[in-house]
Write a structure and sequence with these properties.
heterodimer, A: alpha+beta, Sufe protein. Chain: A, three-stranded antiparallel sheet, 6 helices, 40% helix, B: 402 residues, alpha/beta, seven-stranded mixed sheet
Chain lengths: 144, 402
């Protein structure tokens, strides 16, 4: 298996690792059984993501995709962040090995889960905006 | 100063040793004859192959005509198991006994046979990864054609009671095969005393190159031919002999099988020191048997950490190791071995395997002891799973009890 240099760089020097106290949105996806959990924290001022932090339990690709996702949404309006796709994360990382594609899906889901939490905290139903956050148990990547 | 590099993955593969390379080199450019040719160059090659076969046989307590060279451990396993199944099927015996912790070369071959009308019993193992001879005895049926139990486990290093299982199989008149890929050169083996009917071995685990292995087949077991063609390997596995590989395997066996107890005494002392130090990391456990294990195998799980990131980060720090984590295998399921010994998935994902030999320096052992806790600490600091474990179990951030 070969990781791109970008993946290795984001694994070795992950951007935006940590937590945000009193975050405006927090999302966690994945589960320990599958071996990946991503947790994302957002600080949002006037509809702009002013800060984002993450914590990830998972493989190299899981760490790199979460790191890249935070970079892609930092400083952006929430409306743009909602549109983040796993494909954009993969492209920004110069590709992922086929067995690791699910990690990029998880990164997208973690972002959406954090945004959904933000909308919910503001009394807005997130589902029409961010869509449904799939339960990890339904994920097809995991045979169990 | 050169960048630190410690190769601690000898169970995956080994470096070709200087003595093996020296033994092989002439076979490429000087003694390159085809062992089937009649002129001197060919006859010399045939003599070399014979001498090599004698060496390999000698290391196992086998007879020379019981050793068949193959391309490696997986080929040997496939041949032994499918061959024994074919023999069994002719007598209406279509039941195979194996264990839950075998290498995939055995497990996937058994699964293949299940699709072709065979019934396979996968014996469960105890918390250390062992089956007992009694379990085997209880599982044997009238229609059992093969028992296949690995000699030593590739992941957790646990050594199976092979001599006892061999005795049971002999008494019950069932063919007994063992995948000894991890054991040869690390454990003294006598196929006759241990009642082993077939044994698979691989060269690249003991400093021979990749692409060479052997299958010991006891006289009296007439295994179906693996490759049709020329008369090589007594007509059972056709194809011009890989003379350099065969010479290399023989040299490697000669080197590895000398003074096994003395080498193991040195290696296991290093192993036990590293284990003792790494177990000081909170929320950590040793996988595999504490004593009945390969001298150079360490397998430890760290809660809250995922194996692949552990390996990548260790590699950045100059340590090449392995893991039973899902992510290294391309599937999302963690090691079947760690699951079979009863580990929950989340703990099985965070395992580290270090495999080394007697030449691991004390300095390198110290470096491992210093580096692993740092890497585990760094990964735990960014793990939401670890955060949750500490919170729900009331632990400090380093995992120590409050």
């Amino acid at each position: 298996m070969i990781y791109s240099e970008k993946v290795m760089d984001h694994f070795a020097n992950p951007r935006n690792v940590g937590e945000i106290e009193n975050a405006d949105g927090v999302g966690e996806v994945g589960n320990a059984k599958c071996g990946d959990i991503m947790k994302m924290y957002l600080k949002i001022d006037n509809g702009i993501i002013t800060d984002v932090k993450f914590k990830t339990f998972g493989c190299g690709a899981a760490v790199a995709t979460s790191s890249m996702a935070t970079e892609l949404i930092k400083g952006k309006p929430v409306e743009d962040a909602v549109k983040l796709t796993n494909k954009a994360v993969i492209e920004a990382l110069d590709g992922l090995p086929p067995a690791k594609l699910h990690c990029s899906v998880l990164a997208e889901q973690a972002t959406k889960a954090a945004l959904a939490d933000y909308y919910r905290k503001n009394g807005i139903d997130p589902e029409p905006i961010v869509g449904k956050i799939e339960d990890c148990a339904d994920c097809e990547s995991c045979g169990s | 100063m050169d960048k630190k590099f410690i190769y601690a993955d000898n169970a995956a593969t080994t470096r070709v040793s200087q003595s093996v390379l020296d033994a092989m080199l002439p076979a490429f450019t000087e003694a390159y004859g085809n062992a089937s040719s009649i002129y001197k160059l060919g006859m010399d090659a045939a003599k070399t192959v014979l001498a090599s076969r004698e060496t390999v046989a000698g290391c196992l307590g086998a007879k020379v005509n019981e050793i068949y060279f193959t391309a490696g451990g997986s080929e040997s396993d496939n041949w032994a198991i499918k061959g024994a199944a074919e023999i069994g099927a002719k007598k209406g015996k279509k039941h195979i006994i194996t264990t839950a912790v075998e290498h995939h070369a055995v497990l996937h071959t058994c699964e293949y046979l299940e699709k072709h009308g065979f019934e396979v019993t996968y014996l469960p193992v105890d918390e250390y990864g062992r089956v007992t001879a009694q379990q085997v005895a209880d599982a044997v049926r009238e229609d059992t054609c093969l028992v296949t139990v690995m000699f030593a486990n590739n992941e957790i290093g646990t050594i199976m009671p092979i001599a006892e299982i061999g005795k049971v199989c002999r008494e019950k008149k069932v063919t007994f095969h063992t995948d000894a890929v991890q054991a040869v050169g690390h454990v003294d083996i006598d196929v006759k005393a241990m009642n082993i009917d077939m044994l698979s071995l691989s060269g690249h685990k003991l400093h021979a190159p990749k692409g060479i292995g052997a299958l010991y087949i006891r006289t009296g077991i007439v295994l179906p031919n693996l490759i049709a063609g020329g008369a090589q390997e007594r007509g059972k596995r056709a194809g011009t002999e890989n003379v350099p590989g065969i010479v290399g395997l023989a040299q490697a066996m000669k080197d590895a099988c000398a003074d096994i107890p003395a080498k193991n005494a040195v290696t296991s002392q290093k192993r036990d020191r590293i284990i003792k130090e790494l177990l000081k990391i909170p929320q950590t456990r040793l996988n595999g048997h504490p004593v009945e294990r390969l001298a150079g195998n360490i397998n430890i799980s760290f809660r809250g950490v995922e194996g692949e990131s552990l390996l990548l980060m260790l590699d950045m720090n100059g340590i090449a190791a392995s893991s039973g984590s899902a992510c290294t295998s391309g599937s999302l399921d963690p090691s079947h071995v760690l699951i079979a010994i009863g580990l929950p998935h989340e703990i099985a994902h965070g395992s580290l395997r270090l495999t080394f030999e007697e030449d691991l320096s004390d300095e390198d052992a110290d470096y491992i002891i210093q580096t692993v806790p740092k890497v585990v600490g760094r990964l735990r600091a960014m793990s939401p799973l670890w955060e949750r474990i500490c919170k729900t179990e009331g632990l400090n951030a380093d995992g120590s009890k409050k």
